[in-house]
Design goal:
It is a single chain. The chain has 485 residues and is mostly helical. It has a domain of 254 residues. It has a two-stranded antiparallel sheet. α6 packs antiparallel against α10 and α7 packs parallel to α22. It is globular.
Length: 485
């Protein structure tokens, strides 16, 4: 059957993409922020049907062949799906145990509105460098910082932008990050050469980002006054047993990740420890959530299980605090997982049928200068983030595509690895149906399109790497012996 296949044309590959874009625009206008509840998923399925129809009726593929690509694509996202479930469980037990409320309580004591956005970005940067994981950073300290920011009177989108900007800066610069290891592996350079070279674009991007958050913080009219912040702190301390011992759990999780424990066992340990600490420190909250009679062991088991799998909320007489003390557990991640699976179906069909490859090859043929090569690489990475919905594929596929082109142009491989990270890693979180964008929106409870305009670091990074390319700033060339090899 393979011998009878036709090569896809550019128009074949563009039809499903244009269909997806048009339908998503209509969908978002009709459903708004509710589009993630199912309508975006259906748009992706309809786009996959269009792509499959072209592949079968014009290119000669069978459904069985396309299904192989779909299964491979979904399989590549399974680790992300497992992590999503565990983040939901961790969020539940960390609320039940008082860990997140304690973070909010202490954060309100030291963070003022003027410096909050700047501080939130720095804090997330430090934690993400230490852990190598933007996802873990957002799901732990990011959730607490969101609560603090809301209490201070900031809009959710701006807070989310500061959190994600810091988390992705740290993720890029950490030797523990999987994407920071993947990019040099695809380009053919070593990890620390990649990090040193990437700092040339990443640090200036972060400096601009921090300056923007300082300016916004100094000029932002927050609704949170000193009195309202004190009221929130008082409500939290009255409802929970706030103690420094609760911070043992996040410290353990961070240490595990720094020690290179995989994300799944580290997050699972954090969720279980959260449940144990809830039983030790929050007997009143246990009784409130269980809402039943029986022994403390029975109530504790019921409350911890509820926090792991489902929605729990802790009501107070303060509406702002009520918004902070809600979590949805594993069940709350199902819409996001549904979105990821639908996106991977479309990506799998496009990859297996060769439609993505033909689009990428068309871009490469237009490349003439170093600047246009780097710009094309960045654009291709963004394109794959949009179409395959996975940041790893957005690094892997362009990395394979462009490695030989960079070598023939006499460019050192760290030029490619830096461009992959500056464009693929950071823009993934700006796409609502990408695994990263869908995950962070779900974890923070803030729509992707609400926080995306304020993710200054993520927006600036690809433009910074393109600017360096056109101005030929910090471009490394291969040594003569490398070119001969």
């Amino acid at each position: 059957m393979k011998g009878q296949l036709k090569a896809p044309r550019i128009i074949d590959a563009l039809i499903p993409i244009l269909f997806l874009i048009v339908l998503l625009i209509i969908n978002i206008r009709v459903f708004g922020t509710d589009s993630l509840s199912g309508s975006n998923q259906m748009v992706l399925i309809f786009s996959a049907i269009v792509a499959a129809s072209i592949a079968i009726f014009r290119l000669g593929f069978t459904w069985e062949e396309l299904q192989v690509g779909i299964i491979k694509s979904i399989s590549s996202a399974m680790s992300s799906i497992l992590i999503l479930f565990l983040i939901g469980a961790l969020a539940g037990t960390w609320l039940l145990s008082g860990i997140v409320p304690a973070m909010i309580y202490y954060g309100l004591q030291v963070l003022s509105p003027e410096i909050f956005l700047f501080a939130a970005c720095i804090i997330c940067s430090v934690v993400s460098v230490a852990t190598g994981s933007s996802w873990t950073t957002v799901a732990t300290v990011g959730v607490a910082l969101l609560g603090i920011g809301k209490a201070l009177g900031f809009e959710e989108g701006i807070i989310g932008g500061a959190i994600i900007s810091g988390a992705y800066f740290g993720d890029k610069m950490s030797p523990l990050s999987d994407t920071t290891n993947l990019a040099p592996a695809m380009a053919g350079t070593d990890l620390f050469t990649h990090i040193r070279y990437m700092a040339k674009t990443t640090v200036p991007s972060m400096i601009i980002t921090l300056l923007l958050f300082i300016v916004i913080g100094l000029n932002y009219e927050t609704a949170g006054s000193v009195d309202s912040v004190k009221a929130i702190s008082d409500v939290i301390s009255a409802k929970f047993n706030v103690t420094g011992w609760l911070f043992v759990v996040p410290v353990v999780v961070i240490v595990m990740i720094v020690k290179k424990v995989a994300a799944v066992p580290a997050l699972l340990s954090g969720a279980i420890l959260g449940g144990i600490f809830a039983l030790i420190f929050q007997p009143d909250i246990i009784a409130l959530i269980a809402n039943d009679s029986g022994s403390y062991a029975y109530l504790g088991f019921k409350a911890v299980m509820m926090s792991l799998y489902g929605e729990i909320s802790i009501l107070t007489d303060n509406d702002v605090v009520n918004d902070l003390l809600v979590t949805r557990g594993m069940g709350g991640m199902l819409n996001t997982i549904w979105l990821i699976i639908c996106a991977m179906v479309l990506g799998g069909i496009m990859e297996e049928s060769g439609m993505l490859r033909v689009l990428a090859e068309a871009v490469i043929r237009k490349v003439h200068s170093i600047g246009s090569l780097i710009a094309s690489t960045a654009a291709t990475c963004v394109f794959f983030n949009v179409t395959t919905s996975d940041q790893y594929l957005a690094i892997l596929v362009p990395g394979r595509m462009y490695a030989d082109v960079y070598r023939k142009r006499g460019l050192a491989p760290e030029n490619l690895s830096r461009t992959l990270e500056d464009s693929a890693t950071v823009t993934s979180v700006l796409v609502p149906w990408n695994t990263c964008g869908a995950t962070q929106a779900s974890v923070l409870g803030v729509a992707t399109l609400a926080y995306a305009p304020y993710c200054f670091f993520n927006i600036i990074s690809p433009f910074m790497t393109i600017l360096y390319g056109y101005l030929k700033i910090g471009i490394h060339y291969r040594e003569p012996e490398e070119e001969l090899a």
